[in-house]
Amino acid sequence: MYCCQERRRQPRDIFAKLSGPVLGALAFMLPLVCASNAGAQGTGTPLRIGVVTDLSGVNLDYGGPTAVVAAKMAVEDAGGAVLGRPVEVLALDHQNKADVASQKVRQWFDQENVEMVTELLNSSVALAVAKIAAEKNKIAMVVGAVTSRLTNEDCNANTIHYAIDTYALANGTANALVKLGGRSWFFLTADFSFGHSLEQDTVSVVERSGGSVLGIARHPAFQGVDFSSYILQAQASGADVVGLANSSNDTVNAVKAAAEFGVTPKQKLAALLMQISDIHGLGLKQAQGLYFTDGWYWNLNEETRAFAQRFFKRTGRMPGMVQAGVYSATLQYLKSVAASGTSDSKRVLEQLHNTPIHDVFARDGRIRPDGRMVHDVYLVQAKTPGESKEPWDYYNVKATIPADQAFLPIEKSKCSLR
Amino acid sequence: MNRNHFVGALCFLGVVIAPFYIYPIALMKVMCFALYATAFNLLFGYTGLLSFGHAAFFGAGSYAASYALKYYGVSTELGLLIGCVAAAALGLAIGSLATRRYGIYFSMITLAMAQLVYFGFLQLPFSGGEDGLQGVRRGEVFGIWSIRDDLAAYFFVTVVVVLGIGAIVRVVHSPFGQVLRAIRDNEARAISLGYNVKRYKLGAFVLSATVSGCAGAAKAIVLGFATLSDAAWTNSGDVVLMTLLGGVGTTLGPMVGATIVVTLHNELADKVGTNVTIIVGALFIVCVLAFRRGVVGEIGGWLRSRARPRLAPLDQRARLLPGDSNL
Amino acid sequence: MILSNLSIQALSGQLVLGLVNGAFYATLSLGLSVIFGMLNIVNFAHGAFFMLGAYIGWIALTYLGIGYWEALLLTPILVGAVGLAVERTLLQWLYRLDNAYGLLLTFGLSLVIEGIFRDAFGASGQTYQTPELLEGSMDLGFMRLPIYRAWILLASAFVCGLTWYIIERTRLGAYLRAATENPDIANTLGINVPMLVSLTYAAGVALAAFAGVLAAPVVQINPLMGANIIITVFAVVVIGGMGSIAGSVTTGLSLGLLEGVAKIVYPQIAATIVFLAMTVVLLVLPAGIFGTEPKRV
Hints:
heterotrimer, A: 418 residues, alpha/beta, six-stranded mixed sheet, four-stranded parallel sheet, 43% helix, C: 297 residues, mainly alpha, ABC transporter involved in vitamin B12 uptake, BtuC, two-stranded antiparallel sheet, 2 strands, 70% helix
């Protein structure tokens, strides 16, 4: 190797060392230049609201494009502009990945004048984005994600948890089922922050009422896993109740597998997070009799029905808690911006915390210091096919759990801001 | 000499002013992946070993650095170092097992072990499972220079990446690198010449793993999180694509490939959504069928065929895999 | 989470389910192994063809009203034709090259196929109704087994057996084996080797598509179902020995059983245990259990 070769390559080494990474970046600067945008703040520049959701994956019915429509409806109802600035709604498909959401939201905050992000289903995404909102001093109004960590360990001044959380879900559903004789439980848990939160909060309720947990099976979330082996485990445990600490497609598949393997007459199923879109996907034949807790229902009163009809005309489906929640959060945000006379996050947050909420989503809601928006929630049971009189008429509302009882009392919150 | 100095100065200027015109986070991400691809190319292009589990090292660097920065509040360069060490250790462990086998079996072992590492990150308590480690602070370099500002971070990352790539280039053009290329071209002959081939392969493997870990740690510092995507096998596939697209066995190739792939992911993701997958897949197919020397290799070959009628010396041509016919 | 009661009942139930999963692994790895043995191509797109089979079955049912039984016969033929086209246009240029290139090209192909379906149908998945004849479940005493799952076992066993018979006991199979061992001599003896090669690829992916239709009623049909399963199938093929039919089938079934046991003891490791097994096997037996040692450089 030392013969026949002269080391004449010194200049090229320097060339290679310095220019390599730079040339590469320079050569492809053009598309990136298009992406960069140093926007200025001022009157006339649009105020942007970002809807961060799953636009094409397993959660698209839970939140998805219909949540974006809900935000747009709220903007229209607020007049399309605030403080002389037009309001724009941007949408992001996070594909259920916290890193995709984090990067894009950071870029939105840095480069594209986005002041508030909402929806944020998928607890990993919500937790990640909440941190970024705090870092950049913007506002995150979480609707779709339900982990109670958002108002406990992971709370911050820039995040508001708007719709429902795992504590309220557990409180409503678990209590109801324990009263019906469900003393021993087996859990099927989605193996990430959301599932763990939901499982933990439900376990506390069960144990507080003197019940016991016979076993837990954790499964990968949102991957279309075959639930048969988990259902077998649940059956083998002999528990009174099989608690499904998962969501959307996973819950639907678990319920189907439970029917296939003959779980239901002997054991009760508890769908700890269920939305009207899931019932629609499952069909009342399989879903009938299921007890669960929901934050909103379209058929509650005249106001909700009117909103639902408007929504149905635009999207072809009835709104669920997430859609109504995004609508309400966006509307409240715009009202607060108008009322505080600025889009500066600190002032707007102050205004949000001090304004009671009376709209189609919450009859009597308010935002607590820990970021928790407290409102009434509903314990419902899925109707039998015979009881359903019109499309999407799926719920029998069994009880209304008032705001002050539904959520974790603020004295018990682990948040430092209370 | 003059022309090279001029080009060098131009590049230096480019590096300095770039963050004022282009979103620095995007630039930094490109640089981290350029480093990652260059490290991978050391193993693939210069030693001829196709590892399908490099994401394990990238992820290890990312997680180790994130954990140290988040929970122990170490200074930035220490976090980076911890990431490198973690990846090196993993590289040693996996490399010593994988290098015992050849060809497709080597690749399969690296894939299998990367899956085991992924599983570790999924289940072990420190890594946050599916949520990953979020809110990783950037810290202060040497304890004094805070790089919380994106511009400051950009210059730090530039220095790290240039040093990293420089180290790899140095190794490639060293006697050690020459032996690696000999192993790639004809392992039996290298053994018969008396080289301890297993040691060289392991050395290349560990070096490649360490620098990949460095890239992962840098990425975690820039973006502020470490997630399972860093260690997923799709990340391993991405780095193979970057190297293939850019030019296997060339110096600039992996950087060019990294820039193309990262930019594609970033820019097209919002505009065309899932079509990114189709485009990436099509790129793979086109590269393998028609473009095996990659962008840089093709351009280099074209330039050389214009400049010199005779063939360039053997070690300056982009060399590919042992099973290839001569170019 | 380790369950406190490892009862025989629970174990048997999981083993039966595991066997059903193993049947899928066996069918898929069979196709992959045959393709590798014949073409020296590591067909990364196998998972994509599996998904293709499931989707075509679903499309046939939803838009064309073609039922399950017809789909079971027609889909493999259709996908086999697609495979034939792929082999003629893309793969035939790679046979003389290092088999890493085949891996990379088929990887790209899998991305393209998955991207197309993801674009067309979204990632949320579709459901396929179980055919009426196979609905319901039977009581085995220790568990209720859905009849459809028992059918999966039967159908897979039949198809694997048929494949084995064709390769080992018919003249076509003899030609195939000859062409695998020494393509040049087989060619000079008058066997149309290129055509055999194309047919092998087509047959291999047809097997994958068959498994896809079989899987449709049990799993959520989504564009990523292939990607999720492909590396497990690879591991099965590598453990069994690339190119060995017996190896693939036995390893596939054994893996299913192993996963069943894992689900009782430590459920989370069930998806990863195959890689542990692969690492161990490869370090002890360089070419897998039934494989032959590859030629050294």
